Amino acid sequence: MQDAQSADSGASQPRPGAANALAGEPSAYLRQHADNPVHWRPFGDEAFGFAAARDVPVFLSIGYAACHWCHVMAHESFEDQETADYLNANFVAIKVDREERPDVDAVYMAATQAISGEGGWPMSVFLTPDGRAFHAGTYFPPRPMPGRPSFRQVLEAVHEAWVERRAAVEHNAESLARGIADSQSATAITLGVTPDPLDAEMLSAAVEALARSEDPVAGGFGAAPKFPPSAVLEFLIRHAAVDSGTAPAARDMAARTLAAMSRSALFDQLDGGFARYSVTRDWSVPHFEKMLYDNAQLLRVHVHWVRLGGSAVYPAAEAAAVAERTADWLLSSLGLAAAPGDAPEAFASSLDADTVVEGEHHEGASYLWTPADQEQVLGPADGAAVALLMNVGIRGTVTGSASPLHPGRALTAAERELWDRVRPTLLGARALRPQPARDEKVVAGWNGLAVAALADAGAILGRPGLVAAAERAAGYLERVHWRAGQGSSPGILVRVSHSGAARGIGGLLEDYAFCCEGLFALYAVTGNQRWYLLAENILLAACRRFAADGTLVDSSGESAQVVNAQGKRPGLDPFDNAAPSGAAAFAGALLSYSALSGSTGHRIMAGNVLSLLPAVATRAPRVAGWLLATAQAALAGPVEAAVAGPDGPEKSVLHRALLLSPSPGLVVAMTADAGRASDGGVPPAVPLLAGRMAGSDGSPQVYLCRGMVCQRPVTSVAELLETLAAMTG
After folding, report:
1. What pLDDT digit, counting tens, does each position of 178-225 carry?
2. 222, 374, 567, 642: which could form a disulfide with 177 (CB 3.0–4.6 Å)?
3. 8 A C-beta contact, residue 336 and residue 440
């Protein structure tokens, strides 16, 4: 009761060790709060032990560095001394970077949605000292608003319930933990049993369900706010490549969404790169943070659209230009080099939504223009013409007078000439403005997505520099994030690194799966067996870490508090969020590995994960995009292609033809001269290459197989494409 009395008086009582403990944390988001008067602690046993010793609840605040409303709540409440005093006196305050601890974020997001009916960031959760949630919400204002209490009111109500109605609080916490456990049981899968065959009609029905939720006018799915449906787009592009009655609809939906996003304010028309989402139906007002995971996925989707051939609605040439700008932006704006002047070796997590101007946070300030700005930079004639072209009017769309640049439609040849001429001038002027902060933590899984995107982009767009960038990032993951196993112990992939040093928790299932996805893609493009072997080691470690007892889980239970919050050991979330679900990506990696290695057991495991699909394919296809995309690859075989024979132009032409094929999930392996076992060399590390050799005349050839049946080797591009078309259809 002493704490309650001091809190009522508004005075903070000093305690041993009571201080803000975030200054030494590597997370940029945590360090943003290091000067708050709130006595923040990082998530861990020490903080929860402190709450238990004081017998007070935990206030858990979860966000990320690029989050606009996280900055708003910090300024309004966490920087306020009176609010901080009350919080410090009656709670132990814990701050979490959701990008470093997605396991923490996921379980408490489930609790927040169950309690409040909404979810998002900042997330504000109240916990018992053992980690069980009993009250939660998102943003709370400093003063009451219609339908939303003030943060101080929430703190006082929770404190009063903790002191006066403790038994009810404990009961609610236990009931919520059981509810989360029950919901996870619904998505549990058993590994190792023979899965039911996939049904092509189910995928066609998923396309039809997506068509019912499409916005055919503005592109995308559903109403505002609109997020890039990256995983769904990958499914639609794969489905469009097969002989199906719904393939044309899939191609048309993908075209409308890709065209709408790339011509809108979601895409940075000056410098490239996509924002996190749009608050409007027509993509005209973005939420300005730029995330690595979004841009890696959208780069890859764009080059896969180019590979498919594009359409009249969104021509391949236009998509290629957007892809090139996005790839260049990734390298220049998110690329992290070991030393100034060096090429990037890894990728930062994000650019902030806000720009700090004269000490104040302003959302999107770097990206906004007025007609007067345009005329000042370009002169009266070009300034007026570009303002009209890029929808910069007297009345702003973000502030009262300022708007982001976007045409909202395809440009004519004359408009394109004007825009190409003035864009460097505008970009130079924008570079003189204050710029958004960059969160420089390296997340293993998101860098895996970037490896896949850059490898595919380099191959499809004919830019070897992008493939080289993918190899540097893969090397960084191997050198910094991967800790090889010793003896019978599997290796560990560390999720996060800062300044070239890995620290923190082991990776989640998504980290292992995304890295495998990237490394298998990089192997297909380069033929360097180093990347296959690294992917194999990471995949086998994932099987032992997340599927050891015959069921699949998203995490390995790093924190007792997280386990308590969900009432049992970690569960499995099969649904895509901003990035593909870890389970779906793991299924894709298993499928690729089984094709390259010939492992029937891993093919069965992929099928076990895909057994989740019938329950969601038509009811919730928008959150099952990567499961659908992986199922499309599995139905296509996937086709296995082994390129054998001496290195040289003929072999390169055959290899490039494979890389340009839109066959869903096509798996490509390539020999190196020194690895041909038929010549007495070292046997290839990739089993798919075993026994593959040049033709009788010494020329390179391609072996094509599907479902354990191989075709006659082909030696020309024409034969290759004809055989691939027959096998894919």
Report:
1. 887 777 665 678 788 889 999 999 999 999 999 999 999 999 999 999
2. 567
3. yes
